[in-house]
Each structure stands twice: as C-alpha cells, then as structure tokens.
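ok trying again, last paste got cut off:
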Amino acid sequence: MARARRKRMTYTEGQRRTILLAAQKEGLTALQVQKRFGVKPITYYSWRKKRGVAARRGGRSLAMLAGSGNLGIQVRSEVQSRIRQVLPEIVRSEVGSYMNSLFGGRRRRRLKT
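nice, full thing came through this time. structure:
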C-alpha cells in the first residue's frame, strides 16, 4: 500500500505578511490562524520567529490590553527612561571587566631609567 504524499503549500511574502498582521491585529492564536487561513501552527510560529514578532501568551499583547494604546506608549516610555539611567553603569562595568581581562587588572611596573 503506497503512502499518500503531503501537499506542500507555498505562500508569497505578501501573503505571509498579511496573515501575520491580521493575526497580530486580531490577537489570534495559532489554532485560530490555522482555522482561518489554513496555515499549520508550526509554520505560523516559524514565520513569527523570522519576522521578529514577540511571543504572546493567550493571544493578547500589551498593546491590545491597553485599549487605545496610551498605556502601551506610557510603559514603553518608562522602560526606555529606566534603560537610559542604568545603561551607562552597565557599559562602564562591562568595559572595565574586559580591560581587566586583557591587561590583568594589575598595575604595570615602570622601568627605571
């Protein structure tokens, strides 16, 4: 008995983008995307990963929970502000550690002349 061959669907970049945007806008889960567009969940997840779309639990994003989006903008602004405060110290510490690893972190002896 011969096995049936699987049918392989190919989607254009435009179709992928349309499906991803619709799913994100409407907060669809992978199963809902499969029912509506016929895209297997594993395919949908790989498209999202390639496009850099963040994973969401329960199909709801922060922007959707915010309603008008005002809360999302406010949260983003607060996060950016905090990063700007903390980042210089992190960079200073990391660069210092790297320099110590390169140069041993000890003082060099001066040659007597």
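cool. The chain has two domains: 10-59, 61-101. The CA atoms of residues 27 and 59 lie 5 Å apart.
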